[in-house]
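Quick one, T. Sequence first:
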Amino acid sequence: MAPTDPAPVAPAPLVWMQGIAKVYGATEGTLGAAGSTAVYALRGVDVHIAQGEFVAIVGPSGSGKSTLMNILGCLDVAERGRYVLAGVDVSRLGDDELAKIRNRLIGFVFQQWNLLARTTAAGNVALPLAYRGDPDRRAKALAALRSVGLEQRANHRPNQLSGGEQQRVAIARALVSRPAILLADEPTGNLDSATGAGIMRLFAQLHASGRTVIVVTHDPRVADLAARQIHLKDGRIVLDAPTATIRASGPNPSLGAGSWARPAAAPVPTGA
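Structure tokens:
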């Protein structure tokens, strides 16, 4: 009998979260038990994101999306659950170790651009590399600006740039260290609709080039430009599906919160 090839092993997800809970206040009792003084921002959330995905995390104020973003970005840690990022179990790392993970694996883009007013676009983009003492930071900053279509504005200061250009500089700054994840929090919130659409098209282009992009938003128009959406309500995932599926199915008021079908859970990453 001829030998058969072994079944292919699925690659471990870039982001693997299981049972993530975040609570503020007293933690006695079960999740959200009656009489508890605890406020649960997240209630046992499972999230699995593969390398190269373009995902929108969607929800209104108070849904838990900002808390989830902070844990995804290693700006905060969960009370319960496990988080493995690029093969590293970050669930119980200390502050110094989390800072190293943020610097090495995550590029942040925020609603506020947080650019240094007296520093050129190239200087702002080079900042993450300056902290590392990278001698090639100028060349790498120019390459990052080129990737967002702003190399010709490298020597301009923020007050010489439009809002959309400032956000592109912020995106270039997030990209310059070649992070595993580009994590954007309401990246179009300070922009008009046309400029915001342009920023989202840029994210789509970065995704098409192989980047993993996660956008946190309350705006369904922004979420509609991502390939996959994860919707949160009251600290729980109520919908996790490709955007194409969501468009095709349309709203279904007969489905209660938490009753949407979700993709099967990914296996625990090997060796994590």
